[in-house]
Amino acid sequence: MKVAVVMGSQSDLPVMQEAIDFLKEMQIPVLVDIVSAHRTPEKLISFGKNAHLQGIDVIIAGAGGAAHLPGMLAAVSPLPVIGVPIKSRNSIDGWDSVLSILQMPAGVPVATVALNGAKNAGILAAQILGVAHKEIQEGISQYKKSLEAAVLVTSDK
Ligand code: RP5
Q1: C-alpha distances in angstroms, 79 versus 58, 60, 83?
Q2: What sign results for the dihedral spanned by CA atoms 66, 116, 74, 54?
């Protein structure tokens, strides 16, 4: 069991780190790599075709701009792919990233989270794994309780 967290550039890491941190908090093994749709296209295809053969169960892919990484991985992999649109330096307010990842053609889904929403990508990946791994599902339930408790503490003030 493993989640792959891949991104188009090292510059995406500060955003993607939130997914990595959540998965580690849930004690889920994580593989982290830089895979660029445009700069390393052959690595993308090789990674996408082989990920499910290497113990990976879910792919989280983050990219900015003309963000083709999540969609191309979804095109060649049988695994669920969660896409994280990243607001990169030269983006047009992040809409380029959002629309590139969100507007997939029928038959090739990418579960797209919010702009820079890497933490939710980590949570969603853990929830997918939690269907078959009850200890992970229990961890998610505990996490949700902590969210509730944090709100209740604040509202008591
Ligand atoms: C995309 O281009 C990456 O995912 C990144 O968000 C953006 C900018 O990349 P760098 O120029 O910082 O390497 O491919």
Answers
A1: 6, 10, 13
A2: positive
Kindly tell me the sign of the dihedral angle through the C-alpha atoms of 48, 52, 54, 59.
positive
Q: Tell me how far the alpha carbon of residue 125 lies from the centroid of ligand 1, in angstroms.
A: 23
Asked if residue 86 has its Cβ within 6 Å of ligand 1, the reply is yes
Q: What is the pLDDT of residues 6-37, one digit of tens each?
A: 999 999 999 999 999 999 999 999 999 999 99
DSSP calls for 99-154: HHHH-PPTT---EE--TT-HHHHHHHHHHHHHTT-HHHHHHHHHHHHHHHHHHHHH
pTM of the model: 0.96
